[in-house]
């Protein structure tokens, strides 16, 4: 279990550390013994203020500057020091309080039962010590429940007469933020319970989180729209829950597993029993929890999930071990900060150490320039890693302070592309130079610009910079924009290289070159015909799709739709003042400025005139309900879960555009349940019982052809 595996690859002498449980307990104790009281007092003060700052970075800014492991090491050091020198322990110490905060933006609600943290450990010995402490207190006759430790944010839900009345964050443990409106958008949290054996008043607590696939899709959209991406799904989920606009929250699929039941009178004897009960009431309880009879069973569970966790559709950061019996829980009690009857065994993020070979830069369609670290290949969490994201200039110059030839630590978080968490300064080469972010575009040489308040640098040469030109055309033909059949990203790239297309409007002149196109390698006559047909057909796409396809910064698919409805045609939109723009629904200052900038550019206006001449739609059709087909006419659908390729809004659109109808609850009359990852168990059970066909998003697309 607690092994540190160093693998030596002889030809290049990498070594890297695989997996968990390497802690500092013993060296820490020796170090503490040798400390004078004055030194201890000093150290306690320094640690307390550092930890408070890290708590703020983590809980309020959602931007931690050190790893959880390093944070926990500091906290553990403080715990030990306060034990050894109780005369210096402050009642305000971060060891005595839950680390979170409440905010001013939401109504503050006091918790009926405090929302505590969990003691944690990264090693086997400390878990054995925990087991011994329990045995000493309550004897040998007890069980543990082992659960996955979901990496999200905890939430307390209050139900009265079976209705969800309040959802509150953990906050500082005593009081939290009332985020009910936002939590109501989470599909797997029941708003109303259907069965009758639940108490009239109860609280249920669990973890709100985001699935990895949804995280990647939404984060990619953020990058495309020029927004700062979130570092991991946990930050994305906690940033989302704290938003003021519930309509925006609804667009970001969150999910929730429940794991604690609180009632005024004890109705079940054990935690395990209550988990089974709340499942029947309609709550989503994680299927992987296990009842364990011995600490060895617990270790077996930990070992299993240390490996299997990479196959889950969401992040976990450890295993939570809870004493099962409520009576025994009561006997064991609490510390100021956490229950004595539970502990979290945390997995150390898999980390590897390798050499930085170079930093390269990618230019996206909006001109945003993203740096990427090229690494000496190293094996990490099942794959060979060669590259890591660096996000932006601040990451290179301020946070990591990267130098040429540095040895860096790489970690895999929620993203497929790993990130660099730190630099091994012991290995920095003498004379190594600090790496400076480039000042001009790697593709076209134009001087880069950074807008105030933004992290990314941009290449402003949008009409002359090859990756931007290609990226814009690829965006235009994308499924979510003009959805041009027979034309893909690679073809765009080739046609650009061969000089056929430079602007979106050139795509519509390709038909004049069909003879030349047919002579090109790789293009058969059939594929050229298909492509040209696809291009012609796209002229029927509605105005909002065209507008989205133009690729105006911050004008995503939803914003384009709102603009199309509000302004009705492109001329009105182009002539709109700042004040007129911000009166449109969901259009804020940032979007308004971006639209004004776009239409200020004469080249953009010329391009729009050319597209108009080709016959594209620049006016919103009054008859909003023109259907793409009648294929689904008379059929009813429910969409549930998380999908890799589409948001639920997009699937709703597809169904409605083809004559289908979305209904709100499952009944015997329902025709189809479109299910993604992690749909609510209650829905699944009901649909199965009623024999309702459960289909995937691909099945749905196949139905409409
Ligand atoms: N890197 C930093 O700067 C920094 C700063 C502050 C905190 N942190 C990290 O956050 C941790 C402290 O956060 P915390 O107080 O939320 O503790 P925690 O995350 O270690 O454990 C408690 C939390 O686990 C969650 N949880 C997930 N699955 C659960 C389950 N099945 N049963 C019960 N609870 C479950 C709950 O939200 C609960 O509040 C630290 O251990 C540290 O790793 C890091
Ligand atoms: Zn450029």
From TrEMBL:
Enzyme class per UniProt: ligase
Domain BRCT: 627-705
The protein's required cofactors: Mg(2+); Mn(2+)
UniProt binding sites for NAD(+): 68-72, 117-118, 147, 170, 207, 322, 346
Gene3D superfamilies: 5' to 3' exonuclease, C-terminal subdomain, 6.20.10.30, BRCT domain, DNA ligase/mRNA capping enzyme, Helix hairpin bin, Nucleic acid-binding proteins
Residues forming the catalytic site: 149
Enzyme Commission numbers on file: 6.5.1.2
Gene Ontology terms for molecular function: DNA ligase (NAD+) activity; metal ion binding
One annotated GO biological process: DNA repair
A GO CC term assigned to this protein in UniProt: cytosol
Alphabetical keyword list: DNA damage, DNA repair, DNA replication, Ligase, Magnesium, Manganese, Metal-binding, NAD, Zinc
InterPro entries referenced in this protein's UniProt entry, alphabetically: BRCT_dom, BRCT_dom_sf, DisA/LigA_HHH, DNA_ligase, DNA_ligase_AS, DNA_ligase_CS, DNAligase_adenylation, DNAligase_N
Binding, Zn(2+): 441, 444, 459, 465
Catalytic reaction annotation: NAD(+) + (deoxyribonucleotide)n-3'-hydroxyl + 5'-phospho-(deoxyribonucleotide)m = (deoxyribonucleotide)n+m + AMP + beta-nicotinamide D-nucleotide
Function description: DNA ligase that catalyzes the formation of phosphodiester linkages between 5'-phosphoryl and 3'-hydroxyl groups in double-stranded DNA using NAD as a coenzyme and as the energy source for the reaction. It is essential for DNA replication and repair of damaged DNA.
NCBIfam families: dnlj, PRK07956.1
HAMAP family assigned: DNA_ligase_A (MF_01588)
Membership in a protein family: Belongs to the NAD-dependent DNA ligase family. LigA subfamily.
Protein name (record): DNA ligase
